[in-house]
Structures are given as structure tokens and as C-alpha cells.
Amino acid sequence: MADAARGTVLPVRHQPPLPHERMILSDAPDAEAIEMDVVIVGAGPGGLACAIELSRLIQKDTEAGGDLGETQIAVLDKASALGEHNLSGAVVNPRAFRELFPELQDSDFPFKDRVVKEAVYLLRESGSIKIPTPPPMHNAGNYTASISEICRWLGDKAEALGVNVFPGFPVDSLLVEGQSVRGVRTTPSGQGRDGSGGEPPTDLTARVTVLAEGTRGPLGQAWTQWQGIGSENPQIFALGVKELWETRKPLDRIIHTLGWPLPRDAFGGSFMYPLEPNLVAIGLVVGLDYRQTTLDVHQLLQRLKLHPLFREYLEGGEMVEWGAKTIPEGGWYGLPSRRSGDGLMMVGDTAGFVDVPSLKGIHYAMQSGMFAARAIFEGLKKGDLSGATLSAYDRMVEASYIRDDLYKSRNQRLAFKDGFFVGGFKAGLMTLSGGKLFGGKISMHADAEVPRQVTPETPFVPNGKLTFSKVDAVFKSGNQTRDDIPSHLVVGKDVPREVAELYVHMCPAGVYELDGDKLVVNAPNCIDCKATDAIGPRWTPREGGSGPSYKRM
Hints:
The chain is α/β, with parallel strands linked by helices and 553 residues long.
């Protein structure tokens, strides 16, 4: 309360710890545990690419007379169907697709259109200035796409190779023996609000477990803490809120913007991409190190749509889908010092493989999944899946374009800690010099350690046609969570009103509300974006099939 009296709050003081004891279990597997050789947690592009590459390597080895025999690979995903929990912009670099499927052409991939035209604007509240496209943001040769459709397509490819794909099975815990991971335990289902009744969890044993949980994966967080694995900077995150619109006026280029409606001390920008002749994606991404308790990304996106640049496309159309997710933004200095250990590997967003200046992560996720598969294959051949063997994965990453790209841009996002103009100036010089200028590490605080100014709320009333409330937005996410499900959110005790107000505005789905000075938690509203997990209440897995049911995100 002393901070609030001075006009600031420090979120970390009110953030509960990750429930580590629930996530790292030394219990013996259940007697009826399902035996697998490899378990992959998460059916995003990284996890599915890993499964596909590993299956093909084993298949080729068998055809060549190898002695691995039948190898059981399982991919577990918390969504009720593949793609329903996946969200991205997205403009995709096809490089990893071409490597994973050399027999296919770009036209065979689940993309929309090749990027031919693009524009970047600096926005003012009622106008805009077109600026030269920064070199990292050039997208010629890339493709617009739906990550939901990509994951369904990859899932079909994996199943055709004999991979066991299990949607609706979130993973609660890692099963460990000594310092080694020996499998996973899924989340119970069908329980009442008090945790009673329902179906027990399922144990799956595995010689190696691959964490492809996506952004802010709780198992990845728990495992790195348990192993004492650090990073040069704490990982930092952004929140992206996205809508799909059926429009009357087609869009012929991809658009990115900087500036309004963000304050100058917040990092972020917006995008609008054409997906079909009359379908566009529009979204706003804001770094979670912003400085005001009442900054609200969902509301800022609603205001953005009133700008003339976007309004001419959206007015008279219909918003058909809505969603949100967090994005790792720490870059090279935010990566864990290792992403492998005895019986475990981390890929994609779980490891933090996102390049913020180019706004890319999908091809890094897939490439890291392929590298993990190659290290696993060699371990299976040797009969050794120890950390020493699996560390080949880290060496592959560090000898690849993943390392090169992230290292080259290592400070460009971090420079914006000094504000929009100073950060933009420094980032421009870093780009021109290939990362040589301002090359020393810029130190960052974790998002929860950034002080927030207690600020008054800016009134906003949605019109239900072009702008929407959080309640209406969650409906458009297809949220299918039971109302009487046990809460999966771990909230601190005696949260002050000013901190609760930060949660209310940060969460895009209306999970948190204020009743007088009391924080009220509507857990079933959650769409698994994990924004408040970065600065406040912790997100943990819940019953399979809960959350959004994205179709074209």
C-alpha cells in the first residue's frame, strides 16, 4: 500500500510463486501408465515439426535396415481440436516449411497469399504518415497465413506418419527420477468447482519429453527453476490482441503501424493483414513493461479501429473471431542458458525463439523442433537420452540462423526501455550496423519488476458494431469452458485495489473485476493468453478442451 500512496505499484510484490511442487513430481508413474518413447507437450508448429521430422528419420532408418524398431511418439495438446489454442498474426517465412517438406512446393503449404505489397505508418490520433519500411520488417517472399490452419495441416501430416496425436490432454506435471524427466501426468477432468469428483489424470512415461507449450509454458518455467537454469536477462513479454473481420472492401497489402494509440513510453504497434479477398486480420501488440496501471490493450485495439486508416476497411463489415496471446520479446539475452537436460528439451516459444524486429517466430519454432528431433534420433540410436547427448540440440540451435538472427537483433527491442524516440533512434543505428552499434547487453527487468503509475481510467463505451466489450470479445473466441470448473489461476492474498486494477485492465478477457475494493476472479472467462502470469496471478493447466476454440486465427 505504501507504493500506491506514492502513486506507483510494484507488481512483483503481489505475485504468488509458481506452484513448483505441483509441476515437478518424483512420484512413481501409475501402474496403468501409457508407455511412449517420446512425448511432445503442445501441438503448435514447433511440437508438430519435431514429431514429423523424428518420424521421418526413424522411417528412413528402418528402411535402411536400422534396428530402432517401432518407436511410439505422442503429441499432447490442451485444446479439444488442433489449432483451437493457436494464435499468431501471421506473416510466415516459409524457410522451415521448405526444409521439413522438400518434396512440396510453396503452393502446397497451408498459406494464404504471397506478400507483394506492404506499408508502414506512423499514426497520430486522426492522421498517419507513411514511413519507409524498416529493413527487418520487409516481408517480400513471405506469406500471410492462419496459424490455426497451419497446425491442423501439420497435425494431419504427423498422423499420416503414425504419430499419436491426442487433443484435449493438457499436461499438469513432469514425472522425474533424480534429475531426469521420465514422463508426464495430465490434468484431471470433470471435477467440480471444489476439485471433487471427475476423472483422474493419466500418466505417460517417455524416454524423452519435448516441451512445446508455447508462450509462458508453466512446465518450462518449473523445469528451468528446478534445474537452476538462468538467462542473461529475464524473459520479457508482450500481449497481442487480434480480431478477424469479414469486410466489404478488400485490402491489397500488409500494414504495420507505430505510434498512436500507445503512450510514448510503451513499446508496440499494430498490424492489418489480408487473408482472403474479404477477410482481414487486425491486431495490436504491446510490451508488458508498460508503465500505467490502467493501460488496456483490448480497449486500445477498439480505439485503433476508429482511426481512418482502418475504419474505411472495417466499417460495414463483421468481426467474426477474436483472441489474444502473449509473445516472448527478450530475444537473445532472454534465452535460457540451455534448453535441454536429462530426458527433456524445450522448443519454440517455450524457449523464447522470437525475433521482435522482424515480427517472426513460427519458422524458428519449426526449425527448433526439427533440431530437437535430430538430437533425439541420435540419442535413440545410441540408447542414450541423457543431457549430455541431448545437448546436441543446443549446439544445433547455436550454429543456425536462429542464433544468427536473434543475436543480430539482440538489443533492438531492449532499446525501447528508454522510450519510443530514443529507442527508435538506437534501433535504427543497430539495424544499419548489423547490430554492432550499441552491441553491449542492455539490461532489463522482468515485467513484474517494472513500477506502474497509478493512473485514472480513460472512459470507453463500445458501440457493438465496430468496437466491442470484453464480454462480447470472449464470445467471439468460442470459449467453451465449463462454468463450474475449478479455478486454474493462483492469485496472491490481499491484493490492493490499485494492483487489482492493473489486473483488470491487463487481462483482455474480463477474468478480473473489482467489486468495490475487492478483486473478483471469473476464471472460466480465461482464454489462456497468460498475460497476468507475467506480472500477477499464475496460470496453470486446466481441464482439456477449456478455453478458446479458434478456427482461423
